[in-house]
Every structure is written in C-alpha cells, then in structure tokens.
Amino acid sequence: MLAFTALFLLNLLLRVFYLRYDFVNGDEGVRALTAVRMLEGARLYADVVTDKPPGASLFYAAVFVLFGRSMKAVHAAAIVWNFATSLVVYVIAFRFYPKRLGLWAAFLFVYFSTNYFTQDTMAANTELLMALPYTAAFYFFILASKPNSMNAEPERPWFSAAGALFAAGLLTGLAALLKQVGILNLGFFALFEILAAWRARAKCPLSMLMGRAVVRLAVVGAGFACVIAAFILWLRSMNALGDFWRNGIVLNMFYIDSEPAGLWIKFMAGRGLGFIFFNATLWSLVALAVWHSTKVGTPNETEKQEALSDRTVALWAGVTLIAVMMSGRFYGHYFIPALPALSLLGARGLESLQRAVSDPDGRQRARLGIVALSLFFAVGLFRCHHRTAVLAYETVTGTRTHWSANWGMTKREEEAEVVSSFVRGQISPGEPLYIWGYAHDVFWRTGCRPASRYLAPYFIDGRFADAEATVSSSGEQFRREAAANLLEDLQHTRPKLILDIEGGFRALPYPELVDFINANYREDGIAGPDPSRPFRVLRAKAGEALSR
Q1: The sheet that has 536-540: what strands, in order across it?
Q2: Are 126 and 33 in contact, with CB atoms under 8 Å apart?
Q3: Residue pLDDT, tens place only, 93-134
Q4: I need a surface site. Which of 59, 66, 181, 443 has the fewest CB within 10 A?
C-alpha cells in the first residue's frame, strides 16, 4: 500500500499543476463541447459532429453530470483514470513476473506517460482514456490462456476462461468506442492464438489446436459484438447511424489519405524519432528485454517461460504501435496505448541490467549502460518536465513568471480571453455563435452555443491538420454536402456574429454559402490580438432579416 500510495502521488504531482489550463490541446475543446451539447439534448454525429467514437465525449459528459461544467474536474478524473491503468499494468506484470517487477512496470508507465510535450501527454485525450480498457482487455485475454509464470495459478476450468475471454472482447469494444484503433487488440488476440497453436503442434494435431483457437476467438468476438451492437442500437434510437458512418468512418478515411508519402516520412523522422529520443531510457530497456527474450538455450524452465511472456508482450506492443503508423502524423499521444506494453518490457530490461551488474563478466558494460540511461533520462526529464517545475513553482508562490508567459498554451488562453471579452460584450450566453477555425476556448468561456453542428472546418474544406495543402478530390461530394449542411445550420440559428479566425471563410468554393454570408453579414473589424489570427468579425446586417 505504501508503494501504491507513492505511485499515486507521483502520478498526481506530474499532472496536477496543469489543471490551471482549461484546454491543454484543441482536441479537448471538441470533446467538451460535444459533451455539453449532448447534455442539452443534441444527437451526437447528427446535431453536433465529431469524427471520433463517442467514448471520450461520454466520459466528459459523465464528469460534467457529477461535478458540473468544469475542465478541472475532467483533468482530475483523467489523472485517476491514468493511475488505474498503471494498476492494471502492475497486475499483468504480477501474473508474468516476480512481484517487484510489477511495481517497476507501473512506475515506468506513470512517468513515461507524461514524458513528452505537454499537449500530447497532459490532455484528457482519447488515447489516454483508451489505454485503460485496452490494457485490461489484454489482461483478461492472458488470464484465459495457459499460465506461463511463477505467479500464475493452475489453469482454470473452461467456464472461467470463457468469462475472461468474453471480458477481453467486451473491454476491446469499449476501447474501440474511445478510439477506433482499440480494435487492434483483436489482431493481437488472433496472432497470439495462431502462434500458440504453432508452438504446440508437436504435442497435439494442428487441426485440433486451430479449432480450439477459433472457439476462443469466437468468445472474444461475442464480447466485442455485444458492445458494437449496443452502440448501433443507441445510434439507431437517435436516427444517427448514417451520420456516424459519414462523420466517424468516411471522414477518417479522408484523414488518412490526405497525407502524402513525403510528409509521412518527415513526421516519422521528426516526431516519431523525437518521441523515441526523449524517451530513450524506456526504449533502450525495451530493446534489452526483447534481445534477451530471443536468446536460445535459456538454462531453466522459469526463464524460458518468462522469455515467452516477454515475446508475448513484445507482440502486443508491436501490434499496438501500428496505430502510430496508420495516420502518418506520429503525434506523441498516439504512442500512449503502447506504453503499458513498453513499460512491462522496460521493467524486464531493468531486471536484466541488475543481473548484469551482479555478474563480474558483464559488470563494466552494465555500468556504462546505466550511465547512458541516466543521461537519456536527464535529457527527457529536463526537456519535458521543465514546464512542470515552472508550474509547480508558480502554484506554490502564487506568482506568474516570464517562462510560462511565453508558452503557446498560455498565449492561446490569453487570446481566448480577449476574444471572449469582445463576444460577451456583443451577445449573451446561450446565443448562437459561429467560428470558422479552431477556437473552442471561446465557446467555453462565453457560454455561447455553436451555431452549426460542425465544430471544426475540415468537414467543409477538407484541410486536415499537417496536410492543409492537400485536399483529396475523392472527398468533394462529402464536402459539398457538409457545406450545404453548414448553410442550413446558419439559416436556422441566424447567429448575430461570425468570427473568421484567419480570414478565409468567404473564399470557400461553395457559392451558395458565400452568397448567403455576403448578403447577410458585413465585416466589422477584428477581435483578436494576434495579426496572424485576427478573428475577423462578420456582423449580421442591422435591421435586416437574414435572407435564405
């Protein structure tokens, strides 16, 4: 209990000082606004649109119901959620390895889940939320498999194994409802069963082994299907199934296709290798564990079983990392679902290093390795947690320093407050407001209701983050329909103000939408403090009813 208390405090201290920011990254704004609109009675995907599964929006909505409309409450809940994931990591390690490695694995997860750029690691994003059910699904699947560690209990009867397999499928479904890539667990389960059958082929006919694998996977599939069926029924009850397919599936295909190969390579070399560099301590320990697991001729049965466990976790990590490759953006938070597996392997790497220090033949190399790992750790700690130290100092002293004043998220909050003050002077909370661009903070601060179902412009212009210059021609019909929906929304809500963040709204290639804006709105100065984001004000023409 003392160790778990220390682990919880570490998890808290690494994250709690960021509570001062409502939105650590822009994705949180979308989740918060969709949650608020859902609580007001809006239908997700139809009346308020997101391109993600509903899990994160429902998580935010649940927090708002329990604690009020507070992003601090969301971030506090995410801190507890992340700690729960570390406990599942501990339980998995305890099943595979000696108990002490479980604590090391949980520690590595808690620390390295924060050890990158703030907007990637400190936000209550879909990946952080997905990691808990995703990791728990792995645990239940392994629980239903033949035990292979000194901590394992004797093999359970079929009904117990079936329950664990069903739970694995159910939790995988919940992970997929937080982010689509949660379905990758099913790929790991299938690979595990195929490899297990192949390893056991000398003891039992392969056909019998494959039949057993099919039955096990069918039970997993039943659990997964229950979640998906419930989700489909929920969508059908709201008459939003088609809207989900359009906005949650089709749009994501355009998102993946929008990035050319050159940018994919650029981001892999920059962001992908950057994440590995700043977390080089963890990756080095993982590499050490994987290397040891591939050694043949291990001296005793316990080490053979532990090596097999290492390879199982490495396979899970490899399958999970496919999600990082798929979108091509290589954001740091895309790595979070793989961190439980990497932390388990990292703990094994630490154990190997400890053994090497005790071995006279390898002691010198081990000490050099420890020095290198310490340097890697210091670089990552300083680069990624100097902000944590600054925020801790400012919190304790009650001051604000020039260091935090220069951060992008501080400047974004200052910009949002300036623009929100302007909006509050023009319209009342609850009135419709439309913003072309990304400024969800303004909706949050003013309490104004989004005047359109679309909270992001890429549904209409097809310009996704990091690939703005590439607009796929295959999505033209989708975008025309979205532009028509936006026009319908504006005609219905009739906002008094439209804020055009960068000034490109009236340059859209949709004549009916542009004609409506030109006929009913006049430009009336700017509301933003930054010339590169002027927030051009389009005000409804006074004394005139909006024409259709």
Answers
A1: 449-450, 432-436, 497-500, 536-540, 521-526
A2: no
A3: 988 887 789 999 999 999 999 999 999 999 999 999 999 999
A4: 66
The residue type at 445: R
DSSP codes joined into one string, 16-58: GGGGG-S-SSHHHHHHHHHHHHHHTTPPBTTTBB-SS-SHHHH
Q: Which two tokens stand for residue 262?
A: 């050159």
Calculate the alpha carbon distances from 193 to 237, 260, 528 in Å.
37, 36, 57
Collapsing DSSP to helix, strand or coil, 330 comes out as coil
Quote the tokens at residue 49: 């649109």
Cα–Cα distance, 221 to 173 (Å, whole number)? 9
Q: If you ran DSSP here, which 8-state letter would residue 522 be given?
A: E
Residue type, 60: Y
Instruction: Count helices and strands (H / E) in the chain.
Output: 24, 5
> Which of the pair, 198 or 49, is modelled with greater confidence?
49
Q: How far is CA 397 from CA 391, 401, 404, 435, 475, in A?
A: 10, 10, 14, 37, 53
Quote the CA–CA distance of 323 and 276 in Å, as a whole number: 16
Contacts of 34 (CB under 8 A, 6+ apart): 44, 48, 50, 57, 60, 455
Closest listed residue to residue 248, CA positions, set 126, 69, 338: 126
Do residues 512 and 486 make contact, with C-beta atoms less than 8 angstroms apart? no
Place of tokens 């990497």: 342
* C-beta of residue 127 within 8 angstroms of C-beta of residue 135: no
Q: Give one DSSP letter per residue of 358-423, joined into a string.
A: HSTTTHHHHHHHHHHHHHHHHHHHHHHHHHHHHHHHHHHHT---HHHHTSHHHHHHHHHHHHHHHH
Among the listed residues 167, 111, 88, the one whose alpha carbon sits nearest the alpha carbon of residue 384: 111
Point out which residues pair with 477 in neighbouring strands.
none
Q: What is the rounded distance in angstroms from the CA atom of residue 222 to the CA atom of residue 175? A: 15
Give the span between the Cα atoms of 294 and 307, in whole angstroms: 7
Q: Is the pTM of this model over 0.85?
A: yes
Q: What is the pLDDT of residues 457-481, one digit of tens each?
A: 999 999 998 888 878 788 899 999 9
